[in-house]
Design goal:
366 residues, alpha+beta, 12-stranded antiparallel sheet, 10-stranded antiparallel sheet, 6 helices, 17% helix
Length: 366
Amino acid sequence: MKLICDGLDLSDAVLKVSKALSVKAANPVLEGIKITAKGDTLTLLATDMELTIEKHIKADVLMEGETVVVGKYFVEFAKKLEKEQVELCHLNEGGLQIKYSDAESELQVFPIDSYPKIEKDNNGDYFIINQSDLKKVVERTAFSCSVDDSRPILKGCLFEVENGVLTAVALDGFRMAVVKKEVEASGNFKTVIPARTLSEIIRLLDKDNENIKVILQKNTLFIEVENTTIISRLIEGEFVKYSHILPSSFSNTVTVNRQAFLNSIERASIFAKNDRYNIIKFDVKENIMTVSAKSEVGNLNENVMVNLSGKDITIAFNGKYIVDFLKIINEEFININLNTPIDPCIIKPVGDEGFLYLVLPVRINA
């Protein structure tokens, strides 16, 4: 194998596929990046058998072939490449020779025969969505996915398509995010996509006005964006029946300016963060919400103007869960829907009926 390519193109491709590299894998070859030179294209591929990322770039291929280079060092090397011509050559005695400017280096390689075969089948159920809409769906749900390995199903987002409407749901046992968006779809179906996969997908999206096709098979996701292919295993199992968690009505609604509310909670969090549960209390009476927090380092009490529909109420939350929500929306006002100090609360941005956020309160002594 021998080829010449642009240094910046190579650097960008290596960094993109490296997100799928396995770390300390049982099979060491999964710590490598597969390089294939064919026709006028250089293809780089990395996989940990859960997530696969493949990237194609233009190259002057002098001799076709393929090899697997040690990923960790190839990534570090690629970061230093500039806009210059780079020559890659697989040596007969083993090793990948890299020539650039007036310098050259050599990296260790793995036997190509030991690298796993990656199946690429782009048939299956699918939905088509605007790239900016998909970004928003992921940004407004994935942050609520669990990071706890004890319930793997919650480490992903439920994507449920029914009658041309995509419903994305993520929850971790303390909060839940639900987003709805109209899409073009092949039919009705549902699956659970790992949060890690979704994060990698939106990193690739840079053409907000263009559509993207997401293909979902029985246990595999397939997507192509700008000469990059992502293949991911889906999470198998039965997702939580989220609709059963949502309250059907509320006795209290508090409307508040998002930025003023966020600023107040962030100030309160300075004192609450020393507490294991980051407890912040909200005391709503008429048109004033008193935000308070206390710990051994000090305390805070400050008032925020609100509009209350319903009865006065005192309730407490983990401040982090509220801040996480407030930072991913841009709407000027939010509605906080409440029943009692121990019932789930639902927060919605005013003007966006396609997004809701449920959070459980923290029990406190009155």
